[in-house]
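Propose amino acids for all 463 sites.
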């Protein structure tokens, strides 16, 4: 019994001691985990803000001076040391680092080395975002754009480059009209490439194109921007790319925008649709008309008035079409646009209303705003050729002299009209009065000045 009691006491003691040891171990484990966590957090904090040592500052100074003098071979070693040891030391690590890595990539012929260098280039942009992404002049969105441009250059094996496209999209959305013109260009090019592979990307491609070309327009019109001319040239190229892509088919556009236009009262959106449809030649679309009518009711503009004019014309409401064209002219501040609208009015008067005098008046107004165009001269010539201001059939043939005069003016001012003008000259010269016909018309002798009568009232030379 005594023995049993001793055993029980000992067992109880051992059990209590074991629990104590377990509790002690548990506390030590918790303390160790807490200590480990604290250490890890401290290490992470130290890693996020690397120490900028005196040696690092010396390396920055060394590579920066060499890179400024384009002595990139001398810059490589100190730059790499600074890049690895104090990536937060100075923005020059990245601005000059790009130049240094570009130089290294241009020098190497070893595929393995090239792969290391181009990956380092991508890492360089990631580190720049980490340490200097809040820079007001060159923020994260700008950095992503330049990163994408370099990816496009140095990763040719990636056919679609969808990661670069995503970087470009973030860049354009952030920088807007302050984007690099190359970024805007490549944003549309990569979007186009994706659309070729995946047609469901069509609507996104259209929106990307509209966004980029809108910003390029802003840059091109800014006379203080040294890239203004380049922006204009890039936009012309992107317009051609867009047309060639096939996505600009009017039926496709209508399917995409019909419901959006019907549901929208957003003036900016409606005006973008109007300008876009006009640019793509889809001005006979009901969607274009609907957007124009809505926008015109909200805030009349030259573009919306033009759209309403086109709609009225197709509905054979010629008087209303002319009224809208005239309103478009009043609202416009662009001489080329005014010239175009006056020419449209001239066509309506001449071709549809057969009011030749009013047609000529508006054609001449068109020439006042754009004297370098040939089409108004061709139109006036055609109006003359259709006229019969005399009862005398021989005198009526004098209209062909003044008609040919206008055709000649057309090709003189506008080489693009030369072929049409030459064809008309050849056609209507055949109807000049013959020698026999003018025998009894002394006022029509060859070489003499003659004023064609009627509404024409135009002087010419007999021939």
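Proposal:
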């Amino acid at each position: 019994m005594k023995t049993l009691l001793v055993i029980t006491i000992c067992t109880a003691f051992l059990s209590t001691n074991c629990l104590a040891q377990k509790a002690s171990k548990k506390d030590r484990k918790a303390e160790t985990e807490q200590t480990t966590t604290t250490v890890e957090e401290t290490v992470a904090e130290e890693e996020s803000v690397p120490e900028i040592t005196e040696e690092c500052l010396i390396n920055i100074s060394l590579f920066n001076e060499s890179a400024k003098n384009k002595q990139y071979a001398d810059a490589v070693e100190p730059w790499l040391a600074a890049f690895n040891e104090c990536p937060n030391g100075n923005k020059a690590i990245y601005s000059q680092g790009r130049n240094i890595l570009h130089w290294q990539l241009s020098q190497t012929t070893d595929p393995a080395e090239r792969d290391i260098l181009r990956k380092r280039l991508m890492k360089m942009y990631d580190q720049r975002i980490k340490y200097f992404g809040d820079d007001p002049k060159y923020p994260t969105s700008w950095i992503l754009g330049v990163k994408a441009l370099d990816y496009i250059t140095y990763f040719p094996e990636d056919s679609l480059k969808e990661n670069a496209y995503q970087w470009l999209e973030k860049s354009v959305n952030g920088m807007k009209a302050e984007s690099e013109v190359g970024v805007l260009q490549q944003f549309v090019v990569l979007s186009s490439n994706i659309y070729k592979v995946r047609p469901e990307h069509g609507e996104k491609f259209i929106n990307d194109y509209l966004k980029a070309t809108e910003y390029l327009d802003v840059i091109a019109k800014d006379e203080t921007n040294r890239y203004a001319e380049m922006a204009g040239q890039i936009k012309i190229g992107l317009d051609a790319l867009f047309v060639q892509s096939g996505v600009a088919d009017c039926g496709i556009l209508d399917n995409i925008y019909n419901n959006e236009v019907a549901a929208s009262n957003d003036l900016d959106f409606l005006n973008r649709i109007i300008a876009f449809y006009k640019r793509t030649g889809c001005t006979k679309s009901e969607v274009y008309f609907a957007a124009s009518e809505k926008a015109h009711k909200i805030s009349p503009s030259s573009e919306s008035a033009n759209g309403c004019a086109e709609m009225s014309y197709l509905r054979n409401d010629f008087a209303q079409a002319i009224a809208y064209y005239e309103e478009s002219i009043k609202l416009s501040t662009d001489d080329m646009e005014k010239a175009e609208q006056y020419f449209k009015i001239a066509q309506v008067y001449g071709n549809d209303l057969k009011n030749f005098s009013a047609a000529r008046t508006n054609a001449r107004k068109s020439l006042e705003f754009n004297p370098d165009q040939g089409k108004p001269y061709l139109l006036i010539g055609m109006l003359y050729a259709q006229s019969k201001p005399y009862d005398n059939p021989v005198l009526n043939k004098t209209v062909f002299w003044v008609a040919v005069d206008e055709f000649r003016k057309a090709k003189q001012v506008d080489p693009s009209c030369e072929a049409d003008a030459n064809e008309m000259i050849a056609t209507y010269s055949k109807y000049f009065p013959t020698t026999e016909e003018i025998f009894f018309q002394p006022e029509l002798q060859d070489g003499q000045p003659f004023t064609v009568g009627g509404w024409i009232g135009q002087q010419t030379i007999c021939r």
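The two ends are 153 Å apart (CA to CA). The domain at 334-463 is CATH 1.25.40.10 (Serine Threonine Protein Phosphatase 5, Tetratricopeptide repeat).
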